[in-house]
Structures are given as C-alpha cells and as structure tokens.
Amino acid sequence: xxxxxxxxxxxxxxxxxxxxxxxxxxxxxxxxxxxxxxxxxxxxxxxxxxxxxxxxxxxxxxxxxxxxxxxxxxxxxxxxxxxxxxxxxxxxxxxxxxxxxxxxxxxxxxxxxxxxxxxxxxxxxxxxxxxxxxxxxxxxxxxxxxxxxxxxxxxxxxxxxxxxxxxxxxxxxxxxxxxxxxxxxxxxxxxxxxxxxxxxxxxxxx
Length: 206
Prior knowledge:
By secondary structure, the chain is of the alpha/beta class. The protein has helices spanning 13-24, 32-44, 52-60, 69-72, 75-84, 88-102, 115-119, 133-146, 153-169, 191-205; strands at 2-6, 28-30, 108-112, 125-130, 182-185.
C-alpha cells in the first residue's frame, strides 16, 4: 500500500504520516528533510540558496543516510529549504530518490508537498492535510521555542506566509491538493484526533 500525505508547513502532515507508518507497518519518508538537507549544505558551503546551480550541486551530492536532524530543523534551514525547493533542477535531482522509496516492495508512506501530484500520482491513498494559518503559525512557533530558538509569533507568521506563497506559486510542482485526495483539516483537532481521523480515512479507502 502506497500512501501520499501532502500539506503546508505545520499542518500536521508529518505527525500523521509517522502515525500511519506505525499503524500499517510501512516505511516512511519525510521528503522535506531532503530539501532541508540541501539547504543546509548550500548554507554551510557559503553559497546563496537563490543560486540554482549551487543548490543543484548540493542536491546531487546529497547522501540521505548522513542527514543530521539537529541541523535541518531550525527556522533558518526551513526558510532556505523553501527557496531551494523552488529550483526545478533541485526537484529533478531529488525526484528519483523519492520515487525509488515509494516503489519499494510492500509499499510506503511519503509526506511532502507534491507527493500525490508528482512523486506518486498512483498512490493507493492520498491525504491533503491542512489547517488555518493562525493554527499552523502557533504550532510552528511552539516547536521552534521548544527547541530553544528565539523567535516571536509574529516572525513565524510572516515566515509562514512567505513560505506558503513560494510553495503555491512555484512553476515546478506547486503545493496543491490532488483531485483524488482526501482533505483533512486539523485546525480544531488535537494530535490524537487528527491521527484517528487519518487512520479512518485510510481504512475506509482500503
């Protein structure tokens, strides 16, 4: 069984995807980690994320097994990831990695922004997880503060709006709901409710 979970930042898609992977015994790939890792590599090399050639080189050299979670989960890494992910050549470089993971025997779960539309349009079940901008900003702010970062809620709201804009407007694989995806709005749900709703959707689809 192949499950695609898409949605904007802090919608809850990652939490839901991990829970579904545990529930159905499937391997899980958070595709956002790939773009974040590319962004960190670009920054550490002293390059500008806007530089498409530098970003492509980092994507081609990426070793998923060496991704360091602590480095890629910062606000700066997230902002830079949004920039490098808009480069078509970066997306092309990482596409095969994602599709190879998706095609493994027995199935898989991938979460990101273009899984159901580009990476795995033939997925057995597609979820599009969303939530209001205010709720997502609050979640993201709490996450960052919990990691020890100093950032205001207003700053997070501004960053979120910028990232949403880039994700939706990029020419290559923009964030959008696949026509056959089930939409799950988690605005008024706690983590447990969102997970149970997602499991119910997958169970019904099966």
